[in-house]
Amino acid sequence: MLLADFNRVRPDYVVKRNNWIPKKVGMVAWRAYMERLPTRVALQRRGITIHNLECILCREYCETSDHLLVSSGFAQIVWLLVFQWCKTDPIIAFSLRDILDAHQKFGGSDKKKKAFHVVCLVTLWSIWNLRNDLMFVGKTKSIANVVEEIKVKSFIWVKHRAKEVNMSWDQWRVFDVF
Ligand SMILES: [Zn+2]
Q1: What is the pTM of this model?
Q2: Where exactly are the structural domains of the chain?
């Protein structure tokens, strides 16, 4: 086994589940981390012939999960705005693992950490959906729209699934919660 292959499987790390969002949303993060999202590079590694490996958003780099969801210019701006919304310092030069662990360092109560974890998982899910909409339907969305969708979707899920949490949209949209 090549070291590069070995490094792609990280059995020591478990992507934390979050029951405030539907399972399918959290699955995107887990699949991304395990290199099991069908990005162009991941498909090619599985032996599928892909003629064009470039990222559909920037057309400059190969499409890996890490590039698409974290380090691409598009993703970096989305993360910057999401971190601003949640009033936390942006992380510089971060990886998917940093995103998945960011809630641990987030200031505030356990509920607030969990809410921020929701936001991170929904952000990954939203960027992945945006890529699929663009690739398969040709539908584009502005960064502002993506960030708004992250706020609205995460609010609806937390509102309906977190029975112990009582908050309004006005509180959520400025992340003034718990
Ligand atoms: Zn790109």
Answers
A1: 0.91
A2: 36-172
